[in-house]
Fold these 3 entries.
Entry 1:
Amino acid sequence: MRRFLFIASLFFALNVYAQEPAAYLPDFDFQKLDSTSFKRTDLDSTKNTLIIFFDATCGHCKDAMLKVNKRYGELKNTNIVLISMDVEKSIRLFLKDFGPKFLDNPQINILHDGKYEFIPLFNPKKFPSLYLYSANRKLLVYANNDNKIDEIFNSIKVDQKNSASE
């Protein structure tokens, strides 16, 4: 309950002083589920990066993850980062039910934000928040629900076609 109140107050404060999502991929240092550090510099700098910020109990997050899971094959040339403030057990159960293609997949970076740094760094408006950054780390698409998932995948396709023709 205390964690819920903390998160709710953070989102309330952010909405009162609403800022735009980070226009460029911020420097970050979160923990993988095996407790090792994962930083922005660990991402492949030649690929787009899709970041999905979720809460394991959020219904909209479940819907969004199901949609992204169905289109997993379209993400083969994209860095994928899933991040949550939830504990490992909740993250694993969420992915088992709603994103099984991401769970225990060595191509996916599943991160834990135990220090609650994601919100001030990325300025999400609510759960889920999906960010697609270009290889040069510029924000291409931001979505705070599942209504822009098609736009995210279309941007990935366009960028892959442009890269292939260069």
Note: The helical segments are 2-16, 59-70, 88-98, 118-122, 149-165.
Entry 2:
Amino acid sequence: MNKALISFLLFFISVIPAIACDVCQRNQPKLLQDISHGTGPQAESDYYIIGVSVIIVLLTLVYSLKYLLKPGEQNPKHIKNIILNQHSES
């Protein structure tokens, strides 16, 4: 478990953000300079859409990790237990 967590953290720490080129840097809003290429958000509503999308992605990540690491299923007839018990009996 600790090795997986350390690997996970090292992966996200080692990700280096892309640096925008000079033209894109001039054309981007101050918030996104040095981060993204191309045209930036065209209206204020684009920031709200991006914000909601980020929240959805983060919630999905948190819940997927939560239920992957500690599913909490206690029913002995659950398929997980059937598979684990068959594997340990062999």
Note: The chain has four helices and no strands.
Entry 3:
Amino acid sequence: MSASFEQVRVRVLPDGRVSRSDAAAFLGLTPKTLADYKSRGIGPCPRKVGGRVFYRLIDLEAFRDTGAREA
């Protein structure tokens, strides 16, 4: 059985923040799905900086690996 993986490029800022679109690509979701997760209180915990939504890479990894919502 052969597994196929797609490499995804994600831009991580020096402080570990990732934009919503890059976070969605990292998780294999759409940005709209992440916005829906935010409104329902599930998924990785978003941070708002200057009116824009970001996610911490460490939170994305925890959500990907365990489904945990980090605060």
Note: The chain has one domain: 17-66.
